[in-house]
Design brief:
The protein is about 45% helix and about 10% strand. It has about 260 residues and is mainly α. The strands form two sheets. It has a three-stranded antiparallel β-sheet.
Amino acid sequence: MNTLRDWQAAFAHALQHGETCEAESWIDPEGLSAKQRLGIYRHQTGFTLIAALRALYPVVEKLVGPEYFHQAASFYWRRYPPKAAHLHGFGDRFADFLQEAPGAEDLYYLPDVARLEWHCHSAYHSADASCATPQAECSGKSQNYPAGRFGLHPSVRLLVSPYPILQIWEAHQRENEDDFPLIAMKQNRKHYLMIWRDPSWQICVSCFSGAKFALLEALQKGKKLTGVADDRLSTEDTDFIDHLITLGALYETAS
């Protein structure tokens, strides 16, 4: 006797691959055929998941156009369907998928733009933590920082790209895209980005130098400030820590 798990697996397979033979045998065809009934669910599933990808990747869609995006999204959801009852994690492999997708080779920066948009989404839905607050007695004094341990807020995401993806992303946030800025695509340098959710629940993106990004990576790995830069922070580093606290990108725990 078939179990509920078998029924669900056959139904999901029919939606994802369009092969309805096994699932059809379990459907009452009264009024509409089993194939027609499954077709309704398949159409609605595709509509919902493609709409979810559109909401996640609006800049990607603007770059490739709605027709190409619809086709790519249709292939994507069939290859990588949701793994949970919610859609928060759906779309996490879209950047890698675009890297292999034919037809957009000239948009070599497209996968990294997608990675930026995914980080914006995951940062917004990340866990919360109380942000560190500036303390006058510690501000700018490296010898005082080791008294506590700072870590990057759970919403912080770090991203490195050889392309000016932040400029591309910001340009497509404009209401009037007729006034589109000229962006030099090959700048022969890396772009170090931090994406985070600020205390007002706004998603923010900033670009930093490689040296500051190294400090961010060290904090993300859980290192104490005493172990970040030769056991002692420079004045520049402590100023940067103060800046991160102001941005709401750090939290503090006991050492």
